[in-house]
Amino acid sequence: MLLCLSGCGEPDIVGDPESGAEKAAICGQCHGQDGISFIPIYPNLAGQKQQYMELQLEAFRAGRRINAAMTPHAQNLSDQDIADLSAFYANLDPRGKQ
Amino acid sequence: MLLCLSGCGEPDIVGDPESGAEKAAICGQCHGQDGISFIPIYPNLAGQKQQYMELQLEAFRAGRRINAAMTPHAQNLSDQDIADLSAFYANLDPRGKQ
């Protein structure tokens, strides 16, 4: 049986943007509460592809992708956290707060 | 003397969005000609932070970040290519073609 965390076949976990909004408080310190980053070397996340963000958070959590700032934040995320955060940012207006 | 490729201190290389548009033809096949990706696991690039994209392309080129699709494309990019591509995408409307 192939274990599917998220994003393949019937999703076991469905991201909830509202839960993601609560969980994103700390992420907003770099990525902006509206998903537009304050810091030029950190990406905007507003309107980004949900599945892409899930894969990146999973990669940071698993150490397949390494970044001094992201790794500590991703290490303790649950699959549901990853799905909620990704859903939250994916649903934001890509231009940021309007 | 600290060699600065791009994005630190006085930039040696300045990205040209018009050159970037020409160089981005192949990138558009996944990331969309307007920077909005066709494929859920590949990121939108429209309006993304220029410096962030430069760092990611440098990381893919150097093998610090690994992706089966991106690595072959990044391996032969010059510093100027990286700056031009990043400038091109950073200047696009984050909502994509309007």
Question: Could you name the key traits of this structure?
Answer:
homodimer, Cytochrome Bc1 Complex, Chain D, domain 2, 98 residues, globular, mainly alpha
What does this structure look like?
Chains A, B: Keywords: Electron transport, Heme, Iron, Metal-binding, Transport. Chains A, B: This is Cytochrome c. Chains A, B: Residues 15-93 form the Cytochrome c domain. Chains A, B: InterPro entries: Cyt_c-like_dom, Cyt_c-like_dom_sf, Cytochrome_c_Oxidase_Subunit. The structure is a homodimer of 98-residue chains. Chain A has one domain (17-90): Cytochrome c-like domain (Cytochrome Bc1 Complex, Chain D, domain 2). Helix content of chain A is 42%, strand content 0%. Chain A has helices spanning 17-23, 28-31, 50-62, 70-74, 79-90. The radius of gyration of chain A is 13 Å and the shape is globular. The model of chain A has no long low-confidence stretch (mean pLDDT 91). The A-B interface holds A 7, 37, 40-44, 46-52, 55, 64-66, 94-95 and B 7, 37, 40-44, 46-52, 55, 64-66, 94-95.
Characterize the largest beta sheet of chain A: strand count, sense, and whether it forms a barrel. none
Q: At the third CATH level, what is the topology name of chain A?
A: Cytochrome Bc1 Complex, Chain D, domain 2
Structural class by secondary-structure content of chain A = mainly alpha
The proportion of residues in beta strands of chain A is under 5%
The secondary-structure element order of chain A is: HHHHH
* Envelope shape of chain A: globular
Low-confidence stretches of chain A: none
**Annotation field: number of helices of chain A:** 5
Tell me, rounded to a whole number, the average pLDDT of chain A. 91
What is the CA–CA distance across the termini of chain A?
A: 45 Å
* CATH H level, superfamily name of chain A: Cytochrome c-like domain
Second CATH tier, the architecture of chain A: Orthogonal Bundle
Characterize the quaternary organization of these chains. Answer: homodimer
The largest inter-chain interface, given as chain pair and residues per side, is: A-B, 20 and 20 residues
Helix content of chain A: 40-55%
Rounded Rg of chain A? 13 Å
Query: How many separate domains of chain A?
Result: 1
Keywords (chains A, B): Electron transport, Heme, Iron, Metal-binding, Transport
Organism (chains A, B): Glaciecola petra
Pfam family, one (chains A, B): Cytochrom_C
Protein name (chains A, B): Cytochrome c
